[in-house]
Specification:
Layout: H1 2-13, H2 19-22, H3 28-41, H4 45-51, E1 52-60, E2 63-66, H5 67-75, E3 80-92, E4 95-105, E5 107-108, E6 111-112, E7 119-128, E8 131-139
Parallel strand pairs: 1-8
Antiparallel strand pairs: 1-2, 3-4, 4-7, 5-6, 7-8
């Protein structure tokens, strides 16, 4: 029976549908980042608000933002052609520190960002009784002038 499972896995693996046999290789941190990005891209700001902790802070080239300021920024984004790379996830207690590269064409308030090449980002997620909360983010993509 095990040989049949392995053979099935080998045949199905090419299509990416073999997670039941091979296990899920995407880390929790990568899943959280992909989820927040897809939620932002879908324009579901109510869901984004539920994911962001009350004490959230971010830093961008133009300075630091609190939760409300970050939400205002996110509402004005228009990200397209998102491509992720180089995920690194560190677990520390109930926190996940996620560093990755992202190549994205995005506009803030109708202004295109200067560089769609991969830029480093870092997020911190905290596991709470109500699920994962986004508590910090660093966006090192230069902002357009």
């Amino acid at each position: 029976m095990k040989i049949i499972g392995i053979a099935l896995c080998a045949m199905i693996f090419v299509s990416g549908a073999c997670s039941a046999f091979a296990g899920d290789t995407m880390s929790e941190g990568e899943k959280l980042e992909r989820k927040i990005w897809s939620t932002i891209m879908a324009g579901d700001m109510a869901a984004v608000e539920l994911m962001i902790a009350p004490g959230f802070q971010s830093v961008h080239q133009d300075g630091a933002r609190d939760r409300d300021e970050e939400l205002a920024l996110l509402k004005g984004l228009d990200p397209v052609n998102v491509q992720f790379s180089d995920f690194k996830v560190t677990e520390q207690g109930d926190a996940l520190i996620v560093t990755y590269g992202v190549s994205v064409s995005e506009s803030i308030a109708g202004q295109k960002l200067a560089n769609p090449a991969p830029s480093p980002r870092q997020s911190v997620w905290l596991k709470t009784s109500s699920g994962w909360q986004w508590i910090a983010h660093a966006n090192l993509n230069p902002m357009g002038k």
